């Protein structure tokens, strides 16, 4: 389950989130923004774990793959929405900061692809 690429992408996402949090803090001087970015990154990394786990179940059940994929996709985005709402309303985190943290995983995947394959895939 945990292979080298998965760990590299995860570490790269954490690094990007930490750098983003530091830059946002330098601009706003608000410590809440640091937590917002890290919370968003945590949600994205947890979702990435879910994608990796669900992809294995799709390979194991090729006959039900389409229905399983649709259900897992919908469930994952409902969880994302709930966690972002909880962060914004109850934890009083900044929505923009959470979204910056959330896209840190996307940047990590793109950067990893460029570094390993020499181009964006």
Automatic annotation (TrEMBL):
UniProt KW Transmembrane helix keyword: yes
Protein's cellular compartments: Cell membrane
Pfam family, one: ATP-synt_I
Membrane topology label: Multi-pass membrane protein
Transmembrane parts of this sequence: 9-28, 34-53, 74-91, 97-115
Keyword Membrane: yes
Entry keyword set: Cell membrane, Membrane, Transmembrane, Transmembrane helix
GO CC term, one of those recorded: plasma membrane
Name the UniProt record assigns to this protein: ATP synthase I subunit
């Amino acid at each position: 389950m945990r292979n080298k690429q998965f760990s590299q992408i995860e570490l790269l996402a954490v690094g990007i989130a930490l750098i983003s949090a530091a830059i946002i803090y330098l601009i706003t001087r608000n410590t809440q923004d640091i937590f917002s970015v890290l919370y968003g990154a945590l949600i994205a990394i947890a979702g990435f774990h879910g994608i990796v786990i669900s992809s294995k179940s799709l390979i194991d059940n090729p006959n039900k793959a389409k229905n399983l994929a649709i259900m897992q996709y919908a469930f994952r985005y409902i969880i994302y929405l709930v966690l972002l709402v909880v962060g914004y309303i109850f934890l009083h985190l900044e929505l923009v900061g959470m979204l910056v943290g959330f896209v840190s995983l996307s940047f990590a995947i793109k950067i990893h692809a460029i570094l390993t394959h020499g181009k964006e895939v």
